[in-house]
Amino acid sequence: QVQLVETGGGLVQAGGSLRLSCAASIRTFSYYDMGWFRQAPGKEREFVAAITWSGGTSYYADSVKGRFTISRDNAKNTVYLQMNSLKPDDTAAYYCAARRSSGSYYNKNEYDYWGQGTQVTVSS
């Protein structure tokens, strides 16, 4: 059974940084593309970043480009999201997700497995 567990969320002031981690209990983790999404209260879950199975290519939402960095360590079955220059608009629950499909990285419906989420709150 696949399990994704996010950690690293918390409360931070605007301009600060956080690093999210997602530990995956997937035997073939290196076969999966991984993504981060976020959902603020009353809003749709939206794409944040994704990284290919090899770690060779990453994708970002325009709203986080230049501030967030996604990375992965296939030896540790873990994907990371380094978040710098945080803004109050980044406040949301952050979810990691895994996929084997070949559809759009930006589409949440292309992901097969999801974690429970970790809350990030950025104060002004």
Unreliable stretches covering 5 or more consecutive residues: none
> Which secondary-structure class do the elements indicate?
mainly beta
Query: What proportion of the residues is helical, as a percent range?
Result: under 10%
**pLDDT average, as an integer?**
96
**What's the N-to-C terminus distance?**
40 Å
For the sheet with most strands, the description reads: 7 strands, mixed
What's the tally of helices?
0
Order of helices and strands: EEEEEEEEEEE
- Strand percentage lies at over 45%
The radius of gyration over CA amounts to 13 Å
Overall 3D form? globular
Number of DSSP-assigned strands: 11
Account of the protein in words:
The protein is mainly β and 124 residues long. The protein is built from no helices and eleven strands. It has strands at residues 4-7, 10-13, 18-24, 33-39, 46-51, 58-60, 68-73, 78-83, 92-99, 113-114, 118-123. The strands form two sheets. Strands 2, 4, 5, 6, 9, 10 and 11 form a seven-stranded mixed β-sheet that branches. Strands 1-3-8-7 form a four-stranded antiparallel β-sheet, with no helix packed on it. Strand 5 and strand 6 (58-60) form a beta hairpin. It is globular. The mean pLDDT is 96.
Could you provide a short overview of the structure?
The protein is built from no helices and eleven strands. The protein is mainly β. The strands form two sheets. Strands 2, 4, 5, 6, 9, 10 and 11 form a seven-stranded mixed β-sheet that branches. Strands 1-3-8-7 form a four-stranded antiparallel β-sheet, with no helix packed on it.
